[in-house]
Design a protein that fits this description.
With 43 residues, this protein is mainly α. It has one domain. This is Transposase.
Amino acid sequence: MCCGVVKMLDWILSLLEPISVGVIVKIDTQRISVYAITSKEAA
């Protein structure tokens, strides 16, 4: 029983991993573009 739950959680996490990586990359690129815009305005 316990092992089945762990396997299921592992499977769910493996499905969610690419999604979360994509979200993190999206947030990172947005932050970088905002930073680039503000540094251009400052300069």
